[in-house]
Amino acid sequence: MPRVDMRRLERIVEGLSRVRLLVVGDVMLDEYLWGDVERVSPEAPVPVVHVTRESMDLGGAGNVVRNAIAMGATCRFCGVVGQDRAGDRVLDLLKDLGVDVSGVVRVEGRPTTRKTRVEARSQQMLRFDRETEDPIAAPNARALVRAVEAAMPGCDGLVLEDYGKGVLHRRVLTAIMRKAGAAGLPVTVDPKHDVASFKGADLVKPNLREVETLTGIRIRKEEDLRRAVAKLRRSLAGSDVVVTRGGDGMTLFEGELAPVDVPIAHSEVYDVQGAGDTSIAALTLARLAGATLHEAAILANAAAGVVVGKLGTATASPEEIRQFLPEAAGAARRGRRR
Hints:
By secondary structure, this protein is α/β, with parallel strands linked by helices. Helix content is about 40%, strand content about 25%. Strand 6 and strand 7 form a beta hairpin. The model has no long low-confidence stretch (mean pLDDT about 90).
């Protein structure tokens, strides 16, 4: 197993603030209705939620931006929103973070992805989704690619966050990957439906369900996972792959090395929403700050351990990550090569 050096991990956390990251992908508006449940409706067998407050946060690729900035990095963003009130709110939230919104393409007639969650008694009661998965039109796709190219200079790395909402379709991805390669920009990918377009990426981070979807291989045992990731890596021309496994942590597939399990420290879980966004932000920033893949996975597990202990779409600060590092490092020492 790779050695775990706490002092080195702490120096990497300090180095996150020197990273300049570009995030491209599906941004969402996460709306929350918070309240209490005290009775069942007389009209139907459903709980009545007495709403006490409302809030809005950036979700999807926007949550990657939020996490990168919370970890101390400088961040640019490119994506697509509609000419609607939800799109206005997304831009306002980005501006509140100090993010330049010139890379956001606005499309008339296309709804901004909006997810409204009803939360009561520390759990999600219901969710409403308003969105489209239709591919963006050619003129909008060209505008997005131009925006990404304009944002690349001065950045250390690129995250492509694909939630399957029609923004990162194949022609857009092909163009972005070509331009990132020409600029020498390392690319990290969170894929949903396609990997061929991500060929040449430095790191790809699917979860177990996504590995099954992307490869068509049902994963029931460890050999199934190795076979599926081998197939995935052939399509990617050898990219490193980190498979997130929920409560079991991560498994790293790096170069020609044997796969490595990086367990998580078990902590109180209030809400797993957005933990994947936190993980990809931490993995990418740590790698760009000089971490090995194993070190980056430990930091990502620490950051995810922070956010699952919070309600709603949450972030992890450098100080919170430092506080969780001993537990994450201790869990990682119990990992193994396969």
